[in-house]
Amino acid sequence: MSEPLRVGVTGGIGSGKSAVTQRLQSLDIEVVDADIVAREVVETGSPALQKIALHFGDDILSEDGSLNRAALRRVVFTDPRERLWLENLTHPLIGESIAKQLAAATSPYVVLSSPLLLEGSQRDFVQHIVVVDVPESVQVARTTTRDNNNEELVRAIMAAQMPRDSRLASADTVIDNSGALEALDEQIASLHKKLLSLSAAG
Ligand code: ADP
User: The pTM is what?
Assistant: First the structure.
């Protein structure tokens, strides 16, 4: 049997990536979530976390020995060199784990869900790019509701992400998630059909 088609799903914060991948999972499609992988490579006791603690000091750890993400964020967002150091450590590990999981997939196609799919080398993992798209006002409204964040923080995160039009320019398929969830369901049904036939065509 040929390898499953590898499909990337991306979109800005609050666009509905999780809403899309949950629906694909319920159709028995395997989903690799880059956010989960990024947390796994620095889990408590991991060699990467030990290196991080050696480099930044034990203040970067919580009392239970897990990574104190807020503390780490404060350091790397104020010092680009430290951010680079951290990325040089974690990105290869994240890439390795993603590659392994994609290679082990047995569903007709496999999904890599990542907010950073188009920003680095992760796009090389996939053969078809699905962009989940909503207007920025909808991103802000849904994210503030979901995370109980203020609008300012959400807009700061959005400003650090790829602009909407560049993202759309990279899409092989666009899912318009500006409407109700019923409208999303319909688009997922036709996306699934399309990806199944693309995968079957090899
Ligand atoms: P992402 O994973 O891209 O950050 P989510 O899938 O978590 O985005 O969606 C953001 C929030 O908006 C979630 O609370 C989700 O339940 C909600 N949501 C997603 N799609 C819709 C929709 N079509 N209508 C209403 N709410 C939605």
Answer: 0.93
